[in-house]
# Entry
Amino acid sequence: MGYTLNLKKYTKYLSDARFYLNARDLFCITGYSGQDPEVDTNGLTPGVDWINGDALYPKTRRFTLGIQLTF
# Structure
């Protein structure tokens, strides 16, 4: 999601300012009761939360917030 402000009439140094927000992996809709319904790296055991004795952690949510200035 983003929004661009036209700054030409307010300042002679900046033309535009664009603010943006990006979000990934916010939620997963599934009937699976474990942490992560996706298959492991070899694809043989779908929906398994433990591989070689190590717990698989759910994917992290990622947020990107930024500003782009045009001079």
Q: What stands out?
A: The beta strands are 2-6, 16-24, 50-51, 54-55, 62-70. The chain is about 0% helix and 40% strand.
